Amino acid sequence: MGDVHELPRPRVATGHLAERIGQPVCFVGRVEKIHPTGKFFVLSDGEGKHTTVELSEPV
To answer: Based on CB atoms within 10 Å of each CB, which residue in 9, 18, 35, 45 is the most buried?
Structure first.
């Protein structure tokens, strides 16, 4: 498998993120909150819907 940064990624909104768990995606939106541990953050998409992202390692 190639480098994750070289492969094409589908652009998704909040409503479709659950279909892409564990897959690289392109999410256009804004960061609303970052948890103090750096492992969780809240994003909002262009429709104003929010989603929480959990990382395996902190940012």
So the answer is: 45
Tell me the C-alpha to C-alpha distance, in Å, between residue 4 and each of 12, 15, 25, 38: 17, 23, 10, 21
Over residues 5-39, the pLDDT tens digits come to 778 899 999 999 999 998 889 999 999 999 999 99
Residue type, 30: R
Q: Which of 29, 23, 28, 27 is nearest to 4 (CA)?
A: 23
For every residue of 29-41, DSSP letters joined together read: EEEEEE-TTSSEE
Q: CA 45, 10, 8, 39 torsion: positive or negative?
A: positive
Strand partners, 50: 44
Amino acid at position 29, single letter: G
